[in-house]
C-alpha cells in the first residue's frame, strides 16, 4: 500500500506548516489559553484566507475538495504545534453538512465555513456509559423540523460558534440535527478540559433543529468514523511534535559531561516513541483509504478502530515518555512539551479510550467473521 501524499496534499501540508509555525508560537498559545473562547482568532482568520478551512468541502460548495485526506494532513500539522483552533470539530461538522445536508443547508452554512465567518461544532458525546453511536438524547418530529431533548457532554469549543450538530435518537434510529448555539430551549454550561479548551455541556429542552441526512440511515455512524479518523490525525501530529521537542532538548542538555541523548536508556525510550509514531501514521492512512473507498461495510469500521486504538494508546505513551525524558522541566506548565502531554491525554479519551475502542474492534471483527 502506497501512503505517499500526492501533489495537492503536499501543497496543503507545506502551506499549513508555514501558517501554523508562524502563528502558533508559545506566546500566542499562552495568550489564546487566557482568552474567553480559548481560540487564536487571528490564526483562524489566516487559515480561512489561505482556503484551508474549506479543505474538506467540494469545489461546488466553494471549498478545495480534498476530503478527509486533506483534513488529516491539516490536523497533523496543527497537532505538531498544538495550535488553539477548533479545527477537527468544525471540519467534521462541515463535512457532514457537505455530504448529507440539503441544498438549503449547504447554501446557508458552507460559504461561511470556507471564509471563516461561520463556525460549527459537534455534540457527539454524553455522560455515563452511553455509546456515541446510540445517543440517549432524543429527537422528536415537529412538522418539517425536530425537537431535541437531552444532555450532551463536553462539546468542543462551542462558545463563539454559530451552530452545533447534535447526535440524537429517533424512532427511525440515530441521526444528526443542526441547531443554532443560541436557540431557544437550550443552554450551555462552561466546563474546563485537560487541553485547556473552553468546552460546554449542552442541555436541550425541546430545542428546534433540522435533520442532516435521514435519521436511521447510517449518517451518524459515518460522521463518527470521520471524527475518529480526524482525532487520530491530530494525535499523530501531537506525538510528532512532542518527539521533536525531545530530540532537540536531548541534543542540547548535558549531564556528567555527556549529552543526554547519548545515554542508551534515553535512546531506547525515543526508539519506542519512533516505532509507535510510525505505527500511528500507517494505521491512520489505512483508515483514510478505507473510509474513502468504502469497499466493504466492515472494512472501514475495523480500519478506523485500529487507527483510533493506536492513536489513543500509543499517542499517550509517546507524550508520556517525552515528558519523562525532559525530567523536571517536563512538568513545567509553561514549557511547550507540557501542552503536548495535555493534548495527548485529552485526545486519547475522546469518543472512548483505548480499552473501549479495543472492545468495539473485537465486536466488529466477530460480526465480520460471522458474515463470512
TrEMBL record:
Entry protein name: Acyl-CoA dehydrogenase
Gene source species: Haloactinomyces albus
Pfam families assigned to the protein according to its UniProt record, in alphabetical order: Acyl-CoA_dh_1, Acyl-CoA_dh_N
Essential cofactor(s): FAD
Molecular function per GO: flavin adenine dinucleotide binding; medium-chain fatty acyl-CoA dehydrogenase activity
Ranges for domain Acyl-CoA dehydrogenase/oxidase C-terminal: 224-344
Similarity-based family: Belongs to the acyl-CoA dehydrogenase family.
PANTHER family, sorted: ACYL-COA DEHYDROGENASE, ACYL-COA DEHYDROGENASE FADE28
Keyword Iron in annotation: no
Keyword entries, A-Z: FAD, Flavoprotein, Oxidoreductase
InterPro entries hit by this protein: Acyl-CoA_Oxase/DH_mid-dom_sf (IPR046373), AcylCo_DH-like_C (IPR036250), AcylCo_DH/oxidase_C (IPR009075), AcylCoA_DH/ox_N (IPR013786), AcylCoA_DH/ox_N_sf (IPR037069), AcylCoA_DH/oxidase_NM_dom_sf (IPR009100)
E.C. number: 1.3.8.7
Protein's UniProt keywords contain Flavoprotein: yes
Domain Acyl-CoA dehydrogenase/oxidase N-terminal: 7-116
Amino acid at each position: 500500500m502506497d501512503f505517499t501524499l500526492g501533489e495537492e496534499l503536499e501543497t496543503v501540508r507545506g502551506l499549513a506548516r508555514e501558517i501554523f509555525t508562524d502563528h502558533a508560537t508559545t506566546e500566542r498559545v499562552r495568550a489564546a489559553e487566557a482568552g474567553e473562547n480559548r481560540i487564536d482568532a487571528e490564526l483562524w482568520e489566516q487559515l480561512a484566507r489561505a482556503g484551508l478551512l474549506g479543505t474538506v468541502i467540494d469545489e461546488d460548495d466553494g471549498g478545495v475538495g480534498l476530503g478527509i485526506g486533506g483534513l488529516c494532513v491539516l490536523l497533523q500539522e496543527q497537532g505538531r504545534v498544538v495550535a488553539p483552533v477548533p479545527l477537527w470539530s468544525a471540519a467534521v461538522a462541515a463535512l457532514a453538512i457537505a455530504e448529507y445536508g440539503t441544498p438549503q443547508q449547504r447554501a446557508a452554512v458552507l460559504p461561511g465555513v470556507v471564509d471563516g465567518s461561520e463556525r460549527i461544532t459537534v455534540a457527539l458525546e454524553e455522560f455515563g456509559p452511553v455509546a456515541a453511536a446510540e445517543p440517549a438524547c432524543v429527537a422528536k418530529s415537529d412538522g418539517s423540523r425536530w425537537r431535541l431533548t437531552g444532555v450532551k457532554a463536553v462539546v468542543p469549543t462551542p462558545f463563539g460558534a454559530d451552530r452545533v450538530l447534535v447526535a440524537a435518537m429517533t424512532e427511525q434510529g440515530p441521526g444528526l440535527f443542526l441547531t443554532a448555539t443560541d436557540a431557544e430551549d437550550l443552554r450551555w454550561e462552561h466546563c474546563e478540559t485537560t487541553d485547556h479548551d473552553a468546552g460546554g455541556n449542552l442541555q436541550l429542552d425541546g430545542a428546534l433543529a433540522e435533520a442532516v441526512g435521514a435519521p436511521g440511515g447510517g449518517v451518524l455512524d459515518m460522521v463518527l468514523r470521520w471524527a475518529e479518523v480526524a482525532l487520530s490525525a491530530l494525535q499523530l501530529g501531537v506525538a510528532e511534535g512532542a518527539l521533536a521537542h525531545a530530540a532537540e532538548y536531548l541534543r542540547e542538555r548535558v549531564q556528567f559531561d555527556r549529552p543526554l541523548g547519548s545515554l542508551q536508556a534515553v535512546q531506547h525510550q525515543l526508539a519506542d516513541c519512533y516505532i509507535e509514531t510510525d505505527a500511528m501514521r500507517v494505521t491512520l492512512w489505512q483508515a483514510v483509504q478505507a473510509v474513502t473507498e468504502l469497499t466493504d461495510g466492515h472494512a472501514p469500521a475495523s480500519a478506523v478502530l485500529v487507527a483510533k486504538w493506536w492513536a489513543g494508546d500509543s499517542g499517550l505513551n509517546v507524550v508520556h515518555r517525552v515528558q519523562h525524558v525532559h525530567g523536571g522541566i517536563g512538568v513545567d506548565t509553561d514549557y511547550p512539551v507540557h501542552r503536548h502531554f495535555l493534548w495527548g491525554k485529552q485526545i486519547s479519551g475522546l469518543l472512548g479510550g483505548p480499552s473501549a475502542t479495543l472492545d468495539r474492534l473485537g465486536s466488529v471483527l466477530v460480526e465480520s467473521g460471522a458474515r463470512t
